[in-house]
Amino acid sequence: MASFVDRVVLHAAGGNGGHGVASIRREKFKPLAGPDGGNGGDGGSVKLVVDPQVTTLLDYHHSPHRRGPNGTQGMGDDRDGANGGDLILGVPDGTVVKDRAGNVLADLVGTGAEYVVAQGGRGGLGNRALASPKRKAPGFALLGEPGDEAEVVLELKTIADVALVGYPSAGKSSLIAAISAARPKIADYPFTTLVPNLGVVQAGESRYTVADVPGLIPGASEGKGLGLEFLRHIERTAVIVHVLDCATLEPQRDPVSDLDTLESELAAYAGDLGIEGGRVPLTERPRIVVLNKIDVPDARDLAEMVRPDLEARGLRVFEISTASHEGLRPLTFALAQIVEEARAAAPEPEPQRIVLRPKAVDAAGFTVTRKGGERDYWFEVRGSKPERWVKQTDFNNDEAVGFLADRLERLGVENSLFKAGAVAGDEVRIGDPDNAVVFDWEPTMTTGAELLGARGTDLRLEETARPTRAEKRREFTERMDAKAEARRELWTERESGVWTDPDQE
Asked: What is its subcellular localisation (predicted)?
């Protein structure tokens, strides 16, 4: 079973927003006392937060699908639904978030650094919030928005000061075990180290971390061996230590040729140089060469032979033995000096500035595009507001559909459709092409809430006319005048004897 995972694919989904509710308050002697439907709660977001207690991405390797909690539905009596709490996912320091195309979305460095992977959906408004002087008792509520879904790649780049690089069985694990309290697996066969190891070294008053990565072989930058999978762990280091085996029995190998091979592999490796900690190419960072296993007589002679050639290249060379601990103290203090110089030269971290980018006053916030051919064509409407409003609309409620039509008309969608050449009956699609709302467009007539019918309906969708209040008042006055005129005529006829019975005279 894997115990160290440094690359996973995370499938995250924000929680859905709760639906709003349509409700009417009922009081004594007031069966219809006004709308009191509450709003739905917001869905919870999925956030990545750097946690110092987390050192691996193993949890997300076993459980790659994570979803934020949903918001609850609103209720009557002005009760709003509960918000879904954010789902906090702890990640190690140095985690890089990428999309599937390899683009860097976030570089999480430092305790508390966070990134929102999937935003939770907004809760829908209840009819209490939708009430207005013209629409005093809405018979509908808005639906909650679904949460965002995202698929990201998490890569762990270990935060270490020193990186140990070398061939398999060069003694890297033995070195980190000799200078720190780390106890990596050590054996006399290649590729003993399968995962990066970290150790903390104390040299005087300086303390720094050392990373031991699996051994490199020729072609590691092209995917051979294990080096390519773990080279990312040395991208943030301040100094690179080449551990060279002076007691190897393999033919055609010597410390100088090993160093040339390691340097060529590091130069060929293309890291993410555009993020913090990776701007300096690996070939330009400070280097130290360690000639290991000088406790073997032949290895000591070989180290003394190649040392002048290595120093002629401008490299600092240390002869050590991890078995007898010879030469380890000067090495640890030299590394401490380089690390302290790198820390002093590092720029001071600046607090992240909040940049406000207000939208232009004349920005429509949506686009209308004609697509298709000459005969088989449609008009596509894209924009955050139209797409969000469509998701919030209950299309089983005519009044809610009419409310959506009013909002789109006020936003200017219909004017844009006219300008784009749309006519009544043309197909209009709002939203993502894979999940768009499709309807035949009928221009909305300018109306108000006074023309709405019974709750839950919109008479504009039924193409029926309803008299206005002024028309009702005029009709009532005419009817009353007609009745009064009929009474006067009957009374006149009665007084003139038209209704007199001749038998009673």
From this structure: Cytoplasm
